[in-house]
Amino acid sequence: MVDYLRKRPNFDILKLLFANKVILVEGPTEEMLISTYLSKQAALNDIDIIPIGQRGYTTFLDIWLVLNKDNQNKKIGVIRDYDDSDAAKEKHDTYDEASENVTVRTTNNYTLEIDLVEAENNLALLNGLFNMAGDLDEVSGHMISGKTARMLDVCDAMVDEENPLDIQLPAHIAEVIEALS
Question: Are 169 and 37 in contact, with CB atoms under 8 Å apart?
Fold first, then answer.
């Protein structure tokens, strides 16, 4: 396991192993959305977010559990995309079921952007932000086609001082944050 992490020179192993509350995400769009949300919630500033740059989290969870499995003061959350893979979802869900301090949640749809657009009143808010009049598929497609740039627009709008966009987190992200709070 140590050799696996040695091959990832930019990975923040100390944060993974020693933070009291950490959320693993696949990439920058999840990291941007969650970081922006957390920045608006003073009580949640003790949660660290680590983008791992890949889909599989099992090696990271195995390493984390070696040090932290029985320490209920330490919590880890995993936010993952469904990616049309029941097998991967089931494999990751076993960690959630086996450990009280591990929370794994997966999007309902293929990817984050669809779940984000689908959450509560977000479709209307995102249509306004992007000057669109689209349905779920159109707005999700727009978000997916420019993943990080569009998420940056969303995040900037969320923290706009004069008129913040009241984006609601998809359930899978909200559940992980709640479990770690």
Answer: yes
